[in-house]
Specification:
A: mainly alpha; 3-stranded antiparallel beta sheet; B: alpha/beta; 8 strands; globular
Chain lengths: 496, 239
């Protein structure tokens, strides 16, 4: 299902990824609500109103910060998605963990008690996040290991290292590691206004850089060979893109947490892809969806202060994704499904009418049967069943639909006849079909035995223009407006 | 103007003449695309020198346009035909600037030259293979280069596109431009091209089509496996 949706491999990976994030977060909610909700009573109605009307300065600032993060994650994510490197964000997020731990330990050793210095922790996270991404790229380039394996190896290695270091920190005599684990799941409500201004500034900077290099990044993602040949520094553009992703990861670390930060990169971009086929609209839309989900997530987690903010932001983002997946106007599943059903119904209808026509034709002397005789002829269901390789159920279904559409009429003796509309449609379907067959045989050197199969596929997509062209070129050769089936006829014109 | 080459595919010394259409011919895996990519510094060369207009590639990049294989990109990318054609102008537009109206006009003109102006706003996924190839050519045309390196522009295209490409090549030649084209269809080589480069991991033969495109050289290039070769050879001998 998902493969149909997005033909390229990496697209389906990111769609799968989004789904798995959704499932994981849902499971988290279902299995351990206590981990997410505070033991204290839920927020009172007046507190909810306070949050929703943005009466607290802190809420306003945090909302601004996370929304900007959403915007910047969405925009950077578009290029990550288009470069087919969706999972690099995941690697950077996980790889940043040992960076935080090591930064903490080092500052703790140098001057005990000051370990939770945010800029230093962020620097550590940034360096290790980049190191993780570089490891993946190096493995991909210099070994025979494929990208997916390289991602898995690096991600688990760094995350394992980070987890063991965190465990070690909790056993350190001088330090309390409390707060470090909030980098894993994010903790929006505990953000301080001062920190948020830093994040907002960083988000804005990342957004501006991405938009300034919009054209260059597009070219890199679409055709890196051409970009390289025409003189763009492909390597540095790639490095910049990874740097931007690392930037988003670090900014998002306190808000959504290192583990889920990939979601604010992928989900808005992947959702927006269902609505548009233009990279500019895609970017604005991803920014909007990113801001929306981050904003909603922040508000919800402000109402329940101990709710894991990252999870809520990702959940609201995933809701957006699900709506887009089914309802997106460009490639939403619902529209695809409807189109597929319509096409199937149309092809079935044409095939049934054509079978009827050909059965009647076999009993008639002329090539071109007058409409009157077409309407009068009765065909039993068993003959239709013999004619085509349909299952009895399919024939039943097709006939029922045709009767409902007033194309066929059923009679008491179990036979069917064409209505005037049915006869007209049958004639048209047969004609299209045979014109196409003739065209294939005459012009494309296709053997007649193969022509029937191909014609079945294509007659339904022949436009009126094509039909006219075929008519002009081919009915001339046959002399009638309805050429006979080439399976029985010796063809005039070029032979094969 | 000289392109002296000795890339990963080895022992290739060739100087392409100005204002001619040159075909690069060889079996699968002969290194045709590799040769072009190496010339454009896209893959590292072990040894050898390549000069464009007597200078290293870096300094004359803007005079060289590259048309990659159509299958080398993902056509599901969310851009229109016009956007792709405009990519040929990006170098001229420069860093950090958006594509403004005059540039869009230029891109549209390039599309018009390959008969694709009517499809300018189409998303590239909705184009046929031949139309996609023409969009790629339009991108190279927009660059307004003196030398065109084309990697299999005729592969899997319809008859209309093939005609469009051929007349475009002739147009370029008439304007004094040079084109090196990786080509697969042996039957049309003598019709379309002035010079031929026969390649199979190394240079088999190079020169004017009527001197070099012989049954003997083809057999040395392809190993004489294809019966088609004999037919083509017979035709050439008959001429």
């Amino acid at each position: 299902m998902i493969r149909n949706l997005r033909p390229n491999e990496s697209g389906s990976v990111s769609a799968l990824r989004s789904c798995s994030i959704l499932l994981g977060t849902l499971l988290l909610f279902l299995l351990c609500p206590n981990a997410l909700f505070a033991a204290e009573a839920p927020a009172s109605p007046s507190a909810i109103v306070r949050v929703l009307t943005l009466q607290d300065y802190n809420t306003r600032v945090v909302l601004l910060g996370t929304s900007l993060l959403g915007v910047c994650g969405g925009i950077v994510g578009v290029f990550m998605l288009l470069r087919k490197r969706s999972l690099i964000g995941d690697v950077i997020g996980h790889s940043a963990l040992p960076g935080i731990a090591i930064a903490f330990i080092v500052t703790q050793i140098i001057s005990p008690g000051t370990g939770k210095n945010l800029p230093i922790l962020m620097f550590g996270a940034f360096v290790f996040g980049l190191a993780g991404a570089v490891c993946v790229l190096l493995i991909e380039r210099y070994s025979r290991i494929r990208a997916d394996a390289a991602l898995a190896i690096v991600l688990s290695l760094f995350y394992g290292l980070g987890t063991s270091l965190l465990t070690a920190i909790t056993r350190m005599p001088t330090a309390s590691a409390a707060g470090l684990s909030s980098f894993l799941n994010g903790k929006t409500a505990s953000l301080l206004a001062g920190d948020v201004w830093v994040f907002a500034g960083a988000s804005l900077l990342l957004t501006i850089v991405t938009l300034a290099l919009f054209k260059e990044l597009c070219l890199l993602c679409f055709d890196s060979n051409y970009a390289g040949a025409s003189g763009w520094p492909v390597f540095w553009l790639d490095a910049l893109l990874i740097g931007l992703v690392a930037g988003v990861t670090i900014v998002g670390m306190q808000t959504v947490g290192l583990i889920l930060v990939v979601a604010i990169l992928i989900i808005p971009a992947a959702s927006a892809r269902f609505w548009t086929d233009d990279v500019r609209h895609l970017t604005w839309m991803a920014a909007l969806l990113g801001a929306l989900s981050a904003g909603v997530g922040t508000l919800v987690s402000s109402m329940a202060p101990r709710l894991a903010a990252g999870a809520v932001i990702v959940l609201s983002g995933t809701l957006v994704f699900l709506v887009s997946l089914f309802g997106g106007t460009q490639r939403g599943l619902f529209w695809k499904w409807r189109e597929h059903r319509r096409r199937r119904a149309r092809i079935g209808r044409h095939d049934l009418l054509r079978a009827m026509y050909e059965l009647i034709e076999a009993t008639q002397p002329d090539i071109d049967i007058p409409e009157q005789r077409l309407i009068l002829a009765r065909v039993p269901q068993s003959r239709i069943l013999e004619k085509r390789s349909w299952s009895p159920r399919r024939v039943d279904q097709l006939i029922r639909r045709a009767i409902r559409g007033e194309l066929l009429e059923s009679h008491n003796d179990g036979t069917f006849s064409l209505t005037p509309e049915g006869a007209a449609l049958a004639r048209r379907a047969v004609r299209n079909h045979r014109l196409w067959e003739l065209y294939l045989i005459t012009y494309a050197d296709v053997a007649p035995s193969q022509a029937d199969y191909d014609a079945d596929q294509i007659e339904h997509v022949l436009g009126p223009e094509m039909i006219r062209e075929l008519e002009e070129r081919l009915t001339r050769q046959c002399g009638t407006s309805l050429p006979a089936s080439p399976h029985t006829l010796d063809l005039p014109g070029p032979t094969i | 103007m000289a392109y002296q080459r000795r890339p990963v595919v080895w022992d290739i010394d060739y100087i392409a003449p100005t204002g001619k259409l040159v075909a690069i011919i060889g079996p699968n895996g002969a290194g045709k695309s590799t040769l072009i990519k190496a010339a454009l510094d896209l893959i590292p060369r072990v040894s050898g020198r390549i000069k464009f207009f007597g200078k290293p590639y870096r300094s004359v990049r803007d005079r060289v346009a590259y048309v990659p294989q159509r299958t080398s990109v993902d056509w599901d990318f969310p851009v229109s035909a016009l956007d792709v054609a405009a990519m040929g102008l990006y170098r001229r537009i420069g860093w950090c600037r958006w594509v403004t109206r005059p540039y869009r006009e230029q891109a549209l003109q390039a599309l018009d030259r390959v008969g694709m102006a009517d499809y300018a706003t189409r998303q590239i996924r909705q184009l046929s293979g031949g139309q996609q190839q023409r969009v790629f050519l339009a991108r190279a045309l927009a660059q307004d280069a003196d030398l065109y390196l084309m990697d299999e522009p005729f592969a899997g295209v319809d008859a209309a596109t093939e005609r469009a490409i051929v007349s475009l090549l002739q147009e370029l030649r008439a304007a004094g431009k040079t084109a090196l084209v990786v080509h697969h269809d042996l039957q049309t080589v003598s019709e379309y091209f002035d010079e031929v480069l026969l390649l199979n991991m190394r240079l088999v033969a190079a020169g004017r089509t009527k001197d070099v495109f012989t049954a003997e050289n083809l057999r040395r290039t392809y190993g004489g496996k294809l019966s088609l070769l004999d037919q083509v050879g017979a035709r050439i001998a008959g001429q």
